Amino acid sequence: LRRNTIKLLEEKIIAENEEEILVTSSLDSLPQNGGLKNSITQDEKLKNSLADELKNSFPQNEKFEGIVCKVQGDLIKQFQTNSSLRYVQDNLLGSEAQNKLERNKLKNSELQTELNSASQISLPFEKIYVFDDLTQIQNLGEENLFIYAPKVFDVENVKNMSKKHKNFGILMPIFANYKDFEILEQIAKQNPNAYLVVNNLYGFVFSNPKIAGTGLNIYNTFSKNLLESLGVKFSVLSFEQKPENVKSFVYNFVGKPSLMTFCHCPYKTTFQNTCSKCSFNDKLTLKNQAGREFAVRRYKISSCYFELVADKKVGSASAFSFIDLR
Question: What is the pTM of this model?
Fold first, then answer.
């Protein structure tokens, strides 16, 4: 969306001292990732409608300083999503530049500098899918981002999975002792372009592109901005918060969240198993006093960890959703 906006600005023939402003209607350079290209180009009528709206957005006495606001506004109208609007507001131009635009005091040279800077920021994926089995993501478009949640964190296992996807990431565990960290560090280094969904602060030491996961409990714009100042590209909102309460671009969590992670082994404490004689299966549940059953999910790094999974899904899929398919 950003790159398209910038290209539209560059293609305009603008004469600041003349009465006429000619706006071209080229939409051939919509961004490839994030699914935003498909949102428009799949429907030729929508594409033509967008071009017409752009043409009609510029009265003949329009000044150069206000054009970027018009372009982003008319593009956003076609998507009809608050998340899209928030993303553009947060990332297309810096806050100081936006204030200057509103006051019509941003000079041409300053605007060009801001646009050049904005073009370096990553565009969002429309959907992010979390999976632990390939059957869960069959027939899902490759323009989305696929986050692998390994049941066993093994260097070769993750490397082989990464080769199957153009847009690939890894769900990092919330706990990691020093032995775990050594394994995770190898995985990150072997997959330098993979997004890491970071769920605890140790994940910030890796140089991979990062997404702030639900483990960091992003509840408001302040926490989101703080984490992004540390290098996070995108953020997933806490499943305890409603997206409409956050006036900033975040991904909405959809799925059954992990309610608790524990390091002790329930097979040892409850069934007196040992590591060499383990009766693990994926059918284990815990039942509370109200009769609700919660699945227990296991993953393994240097040792085993277990997650208590919610019995009901939260959230609803829409544009810019982080969807856990497990």
Answer: 0.67
